[in-house]
Specification:
globular, Rossmann fold, about 45% helix, alpha/beta, about 20% strand, about 130 residues
């Protein structure tokens, strides 16, 4: 079975390292890019070719909304999972409108993030109450 290639944009270095370590512990998943902001991630998409990108919302340089918008317009085959503490109806509806595949709160167990990655890769959706195609 082919590994799912993952890109991450998360400005908090501790959180980014934790996510990378947790994801790499799953043999089905492979981190191909771990960026500190959206622009750094975008600058690596042409060379890393992730299947799925995990985006924080609040980041310096280029935030998650603008990064998601860029990915949808320029890399439409990349699926995007938003990963943020800003987990309210407004943010969920906004990223849904912008074309995200799912939204996972940082307050959730990281196992939910892994499960969401696998579901989004297989179906394009999560199947939970927080998403959609």
């Amino acid at each position: 079975m082919r590994q799912i290639k993952i890109g991450i944009a998360e400005d908090n270095e501790t959180m980014r390292s934790l996510i990378v370590k947790y994801i790499q512990s799953n043999s089905r998943l492979n981190i191909v890019c771990a960026a500190s902001n959206g622009l750094e991630l975008i600058n690596n998409l042409d060379t890393t070719f992730p299947d799925i990108v995990i985006l924080d919302i609040n980041m310096p340089v280029l935030d998650g909304f603008d990064t998601l918008n860029f990915i949808r317009n320029n890399f439409p085959d990349i699926k995007v999972i938003m990963f943020s503490l800003n987990y309210d109806r407004h943010h969920i509806e906004l990223v849904k409108k912008l074309g995200a595949s799912s939204f996972v709160s940082k307050s959730q167990d990281l196992k939910l993030l892994i499960d969401t990655i696998i579901k989004v890769n297989e179906n394009g959706i999560t199947g939970n109450e927080h998403f959609f195609v």
